[in-house]
Specification:
Blueprint (H helix, E strand, L loop, with lengths): L2 H16 L7 E5 L42 H9 L14 H6 L24 H19 L1 H10 L1 E5 L2 H8 L5 H5 L2 H21 L4 E5 L8 H4 L9 H24 L4 E5 L2 H9 L26
Parallel strand pairs: 1-2, 2-3, 3-4
Helix pairs in contact: 4-5, 8-10
The protein binds 2-acetamido-2-deoxy-beta-D-glucopyranose.
The site of 2-acetamido-2-deoxy-beta-D-glucopyranose has 4 residues, from loops.
Family: Belongs to the 'GDSL' lipolytic enzyme family.
Organism: Lupinus albus
GO molecular function: hydrolase activity, acting on ester bonds
């Protein structure tokens, strides 16, 4: 078993220990890596992918709003937990039975900061997603009462994967303010202190078991590689991401100490994704540098 498989196995073991009750309920927050269709409900959003050939390898072969040909990481984890992948929140905002079974708030183009991805016109920022979870909790409380609603929220598992767009569709865009206003260190500290507040709010709303997905090597995605003369990964971008991942791990330790019964864990996806980029054929991939192109569009945004 390779080191990465061991890491993954340990991750699923921790998941299994978190998922003690019979029916696991999950609430997912994030960006295009986990969006299962919320942006289809945002009329003016430019961060959409409900057209071919998205979904060609998904059940039924149709586009669903997932930014992929197949399943998202959330879909795969749901399957491992033995549950159906929760629906997009915006498809069921008033359906209490659905809310009780878990929903997904993730939105392509979203970030930790409000203004991340602003040129997509509409997307649910992490704050928006947390506000929708607050509404979810209020609806559940009205239905099953205070005590049961609290227990329900305490027992659920929360998946969060956010932050990539704060770099790709904010800090690294020279025409947006944040890249000019902050140094890389200041920007990272802004992200971490904002996340500190956001995770604390989630905790106050009842979240206890939280899995935070670290960022992958964003310097290696096509939209960044094209900035290097030889198409190589951008080392400075990868270095910023490693620093972000290291700071978020420290924040998670701090929150676990500060918040009673909090059980946050960090899922370190960076080395796994890098391994895939370095050894694509071992995992059945042929091309790792090419940006996907869509028949009817001049270009496709590689990372929303
Ligand atoms: C986003 O905007 C709202 C409303 O102006 C504000 O209350 C909130 O603090 C902002 N969040 C972030 C992360 O900047």
């Amino acid at each position: 078993m390779s080191m990465h498989r061991v890491v993954f196995a340990i991750f699923f073991l921790s998941l299994a220990s978190m998922a003690s009750s019979a029916q696991v309920v999950t609430y997912t927050f994030g960006d295009s890596l986990t969006d299962v269709g919320n942006n289809n409900f945002l009329q003016f959003s430019l961060a959409k992918c409900n057209y071919p050939w998205y979904g060609i390898d998904y059940n039924g072969g149709q586009a669903t709003g997932r930014f992929t040909n197949g399943r998202t990481i959330g879909d795969i984890i749901s399957e491992k937990l033995g549950i159906t992948s929760p629906p997009p929140y915006l498809s069921v905002p008033k359906n209490i039975d659905a809310l009780l079974k878990g929903v997904n708030y993730a939105s392509g183009g979203a970030g930790i900061l409000n203004d991340t991805g602003l040129y997509f016109i509409e997307r649910l920022s992490f704050d928006d997603q947390i506000n929708y979870f607050k509404k979810t909790k209020e609806a559940i409380r009205t239905k099953i009462g205070d005590e049961d609603a609290n227990r329900h929220c305490n027992e659920a598992i929360y998946f969060i994967g956010i932050g990539s767009n704060d770099y790709i569709n904010n800090f690294l865009q020279p025409f947006l303010a944040d890249g000019q206003q902050y140094t890389p260190d200041e920007f990272r500290e802004l992200l971490i202190s904002t996340l500190d507040e956001q995770l604390t709010i989630l905790y106050q709303l009842g979240a206890r078991k939280i899995i935070f997905n670290g960022l992958g090597p964003l310097g290696c995605i096509p939209s960044q590689r094209v900035k290097s003369k030889t198409g190589q990964c951008l080392k400075h971008v990868n270095e910023w991401i490693r620093q972000f991942n290291s700071k978020i791990q420290k924040l998670i330790k701090k929150l676990n100490r500060r918040l009673p019964n909090a059980k946050l864990i960090f899922a370190d996806t960076y080395p796994l994704v890098l391994e895939l980029i370095n050894n694509p054929t071992a995992y059945g991939f042929k091309y790792i540098v090419l940006q996907c192109r869509h028949k009817y569009r001049r270009f496709m945004l590689a990372k929303l």
